[in-house]
Amino acid sequence: MQNSAQLEDRIFKCDQILSRNPDSLVFAALSDAYRKRGDLAKAFHVCSRGLKLHPDYGPGHLVMARINVERGMYSEAERELVLAVESDGRTRGTELLLAQILIRKDQTGEAGKILDKLKITDPENPVVAELRMAKKQKRQPDRPEFDVMTAQERWRIEKVVDLKDSVGYLKSLPGVSGALMVGENGLVVESKLTSFLEEELVGAVATNITRRVKEGMGGIGFGDYEQVLIEAGNLALWIIRFEDQACVLCCTPDAALGALKVRVGELLEHLSITVR
Questions:
Q1: Phi then psi for 206, rounded to 5 degrees?
Q2: Which residue in 103, 131, 148, 243 has the fewest CB atoms around it within 10 Å?
Q3: Domains of the chain
Q4: What is the pLDDT of residue 139?
Q5: If DSSP codes are grouped into helix, strand and coil, which group holds residue 105?
Q6: What percent of the chain has pLDDT over 90?
Q7: Contacts within 8 Å (CB) and 24+ apart, 165-170
Q8: Smallest Cα–Cα separation from 79: which of 109, 53, 105?
Q9: Helices (H), 25-70
Q10: What does residue 247 show for φ and ψ, rounded to 5 degrees?
Q11: What predicted TM-score, i.e. pTM, was given to this entire model?
C-alpha cells in the first residue's frame, strides 16, 4: 500500500503529465490516486473529464467504478464496471469489485456465486475471505446517493455557471442522450444532443406536449405542470418546468430516473440563483 508521501508524489507527477497533455491516459492513474487519498470529488472530476475524451478506455471506467462505490453510487458503479469489462474483459479484480457492488446492493446471492468460484481458484485470497464474511453479515444501510459532494462543490468542480454549462453537464450524466432548454415559443435556447436526435424536432415535440398538458391541467383546475414524463420503446422524454422555459432530457430506458431527479433538482435550484 502506498504511504502518504508516495501518493502525493504520484499525484504530482500525474498532474504534471496531464497539464502538459490533456489527452493523456494518465487521467485514470491520477483519479485513482485522488480516490486513495480520500478526495472523491476531485477523483470524480478528473475521471469524468478523461472518460469524455476516451470513452472506450477500460481502465478509466474501472477507476470510475471504484470511485462510485466509495461514493455510495452502486448502480452507477456497476454500469461503469460493465463498460470496463466490455473493453478489457473479465479479470479477478473486476469479479471481486462486482461481488463488492452486489453485496452493497443487497444482491448477496449473485455475489456469493462469484465469491464461491473465486475461492476455488484462490482459496487463500484475503479479499475473497473478507467479502464472504461481509456477505454473511447484516448489511449496513446505504448512504444517500450524492452525499459526498455538496451541491456548491459540484457546480464549482463541474464549472457550471450558465445555461450552456448546465446543458453540457446534464448530457454527461449516465442514461442521458440529450439535454435541452426550450423557451415557451418553442425555440431551443441551449442543447447538447447525441447525433441521432434532432434539436428542432425534440424542441417542437416538447413544446407541443407542454402546451397540451397546460391546457388540460388548467381545464380541471390543477394549476401548471411541474414535470412530464413520457416513456417510449427506446427513449424517455422528461420535461421539467424551469421558470419560463422547459428543461428537456432524452433518457435511455436504463436511466436511473430517481438518481437523475436529485441532480436535476439541485442543478435547477443552482441556476435559479445564478442565471438571470
A1: -60, -40
A2: 243
A3: 4-136 (1.25.40.10), 151-274 (3.30.450.30)
A4: 47
A5: coil
A6: 28
A7: 166/190, 166/267, 166/270, 166/271, 166/275, 167/191, 167/192, 168/192, 169/267, 170/247, 170/249, 170/263, 170/264, 170/267
A8: 105
A9: 27-37, 40-53, 58-70
A10: -90, 120
A11: 0.55
